[in-house]
Amino acid sequence: MDRPRRTNTAPETDDRNKEAYRMHLTARQRLVMTFTFFSMFFGAGNLIFPPFVGAQAGFAIMPAGVGFIVSAVGLPILGVIAVTFAGGFDALASRVSPGFSLFLGLAIILTIGPCFAIPRTATTSFEMMVAPFTPDSSTWAAQLVYSAVFFALAFVFAQHPERLSKVLGRFMGPLLLTLIAILFVACLVHGGTAPHPSGDYATNQLARGFLDGYQTMDLLAALYFGIVISANIRAQQVDDENEVRRETAFAGIGTGVLLVIIYGALSYVGVVSGGITAIDSSTDTGATVLTNLTSSVFGASGTAFLGVVFVIACLNVCTGLICTCATYFHTRFRTIAGRDVSYRAWQVIFTVFSFIVSNAGLSAIIKVSVPVLSALYPLAIVLVLLALTHHVFGAHFPRVYPWTILLAAVPSVATCIASLAVVFGGSLPWLDSLLLLLPLQEQQLGWLVPALVGAVVGIVDSLLRPPTDARPTRP
Q: Do the Cβ atoms of 296 and 290 come closer than 8 Å?
């Protein structure tokens, strides 16, 4: 293993409290950190959303792609840096309140776990591997059987996740990147005419792309990844906190560059696929976009190969998520109603629950997840921005945190409720009318102005009511 370079940054002194030397990672170690960071973010789910954006945006892919990349790449990288600077997710969210930290932590774990992300691993791999070869009349039965086998295997592998990671983790990343490169080159050779923008991308492509970037759920995951990355850097004998933050930023920038390149390639794949076969945005998904392309360019064998890759990748991700969620709940809730709940019991609960949800189908899971993410993402964005500007605002005006979060949460949660009503076939016209009074609400950004108002109110409140606790806020 490469040893970190030691650079003399100060003359030797007798003061034992001063660091005479500062540790840096070597170029090779930085590259390893970058690919570790990248592998934490990029899963099979990240393969299906950029092509879906490209297929709908058509020749308007540039503004749509920019919006998608800002929320799917820029925000998660900033989130990791923000959490690193704050000393972890709990430390950051507790600046609002301990109760908010617990609430948002639970909401994030359930979202990236059994409610959406874990079921999506089964439905995505089914759509890629089985659905193209299954008659429409028996799709539901095939999905039931497939998901039962998929989650049974995931539960077994979750008992020894390190074995699966050692076997699959080493080649799944390179295999997925190779697959993307093959698809991109095939699209360059095939060419075609970009379709007209359709579906949600008929207008306001920039804003729509930004909102669809939520579907990667990477910002929510990033709030937990930051502390993991910084711990990996410290394990390389980098002890100075400023250097840990600096190396984390290097890894984040490298990961961001990789993601931008890959999302750009996949968006172009989606544009070409949309030109070959038109899609229905209300029923089709990114998996449909990819299978349309592979069946047209490579035939049935190409679609089958793509499906196998997705199954393996999704199984790996599912195993890791089951372990992550079970660990979190076992740590937080060791007893319920006076009875002990074991780690294995939490694994069973999440596996069975995810199996049930997965049979709703990929399209239905995505439709329900959109309103939920529209409530959680604004809170995560506000929290990250407050953390990045902590020395300017939060450190001097601590009530900026609760006020900004509160006023951003009201329209975000209200928008979530109104959208869920539509998803389930109802409507709340009175709530829709109230929300339309907010600036930018038509672009689903109605929380932005209230959040700015909350920051101002927080500053004023901090000046009028200085905190009784004189201890300084952690930087």
A: no
Find the range with the poorest average confidence among 134-138, 366-370, 438-442. 134-138
Handedness of CA 202, 203, 208, 209 (dihedral sign): positive
Residue 165: the pLDDT is 55
Count of C-beta atoms within a 10 Å radius of residue 341: 15
Mean pLDDT, rounded, of the chain: 86
Handedness of CA 426, 430, 431, 436 (dihedral sign): positive
Please classify residue 233 by burial: count the beta carbons closer than 10 Å to its beta carbon, then call 0-12 exposed, 13-18 middle and 19+ buried: buried
Cα–Cα distances in angstroms (integers) from residue 40 to residues 178, 259, 385, in the given order: 18, 12, 22
The confidence band for 164, taking pLDDT boundaries of 50, 70 and 90, is: low
Q: Nearest 10 degrees: CA dihedral of 202, 206, 209, 211?
A: -110
| 475 domain residue, yes or no | no
Cα angle for residues 172, 173, 177 (degrees, 5° grid): 115
What's the N-to-C CA distance of the chain in angstroms? 33
- Helix extents (H) in 159-217: 161-190, 205-212
Same domain, 187 and 296: yes
The number of distinct structural domains making up the chain is: 2
The Cα–Cα gap between 203 and 57 comes to 9
CA distance 100 to 118: 24
Of residues 106, 79, 86, 117, the one with CA closest to residue 222: 79
Here the tokens at position 41 are: 């973010």
pLDDT tops 80 at residue 5: no
Residue 208 CA, distance from chain mean position: 17
Q: Can you tell me the distance from the alpha carbon of 120 to that of 285, in angstroms, rounded to the nearest whole number?
A: 12
Say if residue 191 is in the same domain as residue 47: yes
370 and 223 assigned to the same domain: no
* CATH code for the domain of 71: 1.20.1740.10
Domain residues for the domain of 386 are 366-467
pLDDT tens for residues 50-78? Answer: 999 999 999 999 999 999 999 999 999 99
CA 73 vs CA 176, 214, 222, 261: distances in Å: 18, 10, 10, 11
pLDDT digits (tens, 9 = 90+) for 274-298: 999 988 888 888 888 999 898 888 8
Q: What is the rounded radius of gyration, in angstroms, for the C-alpha atoms of the chain?
A: 23
Q: Are 120 and 362 in contact (CB under 8 A)?
A: yes
DSSP 7-30: EE-S---S-TTS-SEEEE--HHHH
Is 192 within a domain? Answer: yes
Task: Specify whether 210 is located in the same domain as 152.
Answer: yes
